[in-house]
Amino acid sequence: MLVRARDEREGQALAGVASRTTGGQPQRRAGRLAGLVTWSVLIPFLLFCLLFELLPVMITIQGSLTNGGTTGLSLASYQRLFGQASNLRAFQNSIALSLVTALIGGLVGAVAAYGLASLRQGWLRNLLVSFCSIAANFAGVPLAFAFIATLGVTGFVTVALRTWLHLDLYSLGFSIYQFWGLVLVYVYFQLPLMVLVTLPALNGLRPEWREAAVNLGASPAGYWWRVALPILFPSLVAGTMLLFANAFGAFATAYALAQGNINLVPILIDFLVNGNVTVDFGLGDALAVGMIVVLLAVVALYTTMLRRASRWLGR
Amino acid sequence: MRQTVSHWRGLLATRLALGLVLLYLLIPLGATLAFGLSGGHGWRGDLSALSAVFGDPDFWLTLLTSLGLAAGTTLLVLLLLTPTAYQVRLRLPQGRGLLETLALLPFAVPPIVLGTGLLQEYNGTAANSPLVVLLSLGLVPLLSNVFPLLDIPLLLVCSYVIVALPFAYRAIDNSLRAVDVKVLTEAAASLGAGWWQTLLQVILPNIWPGVLTAALLTFSTVMGELTLASLFNTYTFPIYLNMTGQNDPHRAALLAVLSFLLTLFCVLGIVPGSRLHAGAGRAALPGQIEGAGLR
């Protein structure tokens, strides 16, 4: 109701009806019409989002509840999801991979971002920010191949370590194609992303706050512990959540690296709906809904933290 | 005195972390270049490996396909987003929440999930289910007939628009926030400009850095996207890269370096325009300049 009232006011302003005293029937209708005109600019975008963003999600949910459209309303897909240990294992792997890389990327990235923010040379800071933007965008298939070339069985660094330091990574049990190898690859795009999302928050720390804290007798550690970290905390958590979502939905990097030989949820979904042999949309939909549920929780935490961060760092 | 020492120690530690991160980012790049040029028979030091890459007709075919897809997606993103974001800033503050939600949702719906849904929506039985027909105002059955008929992978472009939505919207909306849209529009209106003329000749030049950022991030995302292209069976550059890499890791390494250079050009286009100049002075919230990319 309130929305519509405001709508009309906006509409009247649009139609150039300045007098608010003569709010008769024709004017109100003209206002409502103008309000429609105001909203009509949004129609293409909203329709597009309905067709290519909302409906696919809805159909996935529907498919998970009808076993991929083959049955009536049933929980068969979810029963199959929870009935097979490999499916649960995939969720376990995906969550562990995302959590580990988000925490490593979040912690190291935040410290590195502070190092970057405290650089005095402006040109160097700008250069490094650009480099981080490139590295954060360098992901997927090329990144996987870069790491195979670096740390694969015959990779450059693997061979160099073996030749010069007599350190054979692969006989020590390391493999770029397994969990910890994947962690190394994911951290490559997580680190620069964390640097980029943390920098604005660090720049938002006002020098006055430190001066005030020092004047009141705080040590540098005290300033960090009592003032800076509490202000930065929501931003850091939000950044880490972003990294988690980033890793959790990642498909191309893991696919190019292990060619489906690692059990992650996105890989499993691809195998089910893009397989050469059989296609199983029922289970694929149920797994997809599982991903959406996990990610919705992450995104909810992300937005909550952003809102909290804006209390001190907002404009 | 003790405070200064511990201050310097702290600074040293953060510099060290920064250095280590940079090393971590640089080593794979150098190693990949060396590995690619070594061609599997020791260091050759010539560029014959590179000429083998450029001699492959599939390289050019897929590169052109991806460039076309990227250009189409970028155009569609800008056409859909700029007028919408402008109108919401100008006259529909109550529409902001809706727009923000729609722009945030792709975070919770990764490409593999989106693709699974789209496959069923336009190619499966779902296309003709009454609920879908009703909710899409009858458009889904209509479109599912159009999509396979068209030669260009239109559905792929449409799904890329959704993937690019979060950061493209952020970039455009941030630059709209930085200018006073209301004053500019009123000034333009007092000089007799219409809605479209105002948008194109007054607003657009003022928000150009944000639009450019959105365009280049979208472009670079599409150039590297594998998931949806693989689901929709389109032979794009990343698919070619993946297939080549399985047979010849040295060639794959060279192609990875080329991809890096492509990303470099896209990002270099963004940096002078917006990031450093607009973002240097004022505080912003995390998530406003995040890189895009498809992992």
UniProtKB/TrEMBL annotation, chain B:
Q: How does it sit in the membrane?
A: Multi-pass membrane protein
SUPFAM superfamilies associated with the record? MetI-like
Read off the CDD domains from this record: TM_PBP2
One of the record's GO cellular component terms: plasma membrane
Q: Which GO terms describe its biological process?
A: transmembrane transport
* Homology family: Belongs to the binding-protein-dependent transport system permease family.
Q: What is this protein called?
A: ABC transmembrane type-1 domain-containing protein
Q: Which organism is it from?
A: Thermogemmatispora tikiterensis
Organism lineage reads as: Bacteria, Bacillati, Chloroflexota, Ktedonobacteria, Thermogemmatisporales
